[in-house]
Amino acid sequence: MFARTQRLTLRPGWPEDAAALTAAIGYEAVARMTSRVPSPYALADAEAFLALPARVDRPTCLVFAHDGEAPRLVGGVGLHDTDGEAEIGYWLTPDAWGRGYATEAARAVLGHAHDALGIRRVLGGHYADNPASGRVLGKLGFVMTGTVADYPCQARGGPVAAVRYALELGARALPLAA
Description:
The chain is α+β, with helices and mostly antiparallel strands. 25% of the residues lie in helices and 31% in strands. The relative contact order is 0.17.
């Protein structure tokens, strides 16, 4: 998936992004709010992630901000499977926090999920100690499911309480070709 928003470009990661990815995600404060990111995060971790096969039905993108002379890698966003359903995930490097980038990037992925993939429902969640991520989900229209469940966190070495959300996207928007 490739997408351009007002301030961001979303695209798949490429092998040449490994060093920038390592620098952007290599903060304990980032890793501890994600389920699958180890801490410390090494160049080999970035290379392994970037070598994973792409899934058309569950796009994963790096997020580049256009806030300087050249786009810079500020985060990641994508869909993954949770119990057979699509779940959105996102992260930002610390100097990109508080600028609305997570909401903007996730909105683009949700639009793609609805319009191109025909996904009708997307799950989301955040660790209980990360209310900023809950605000992002709220801005996107996600609704709390009333569930708080233990969710894996590689950087913390085990499960962490997570508040769960869902978003109903509705019926497929694109007409079928005749």
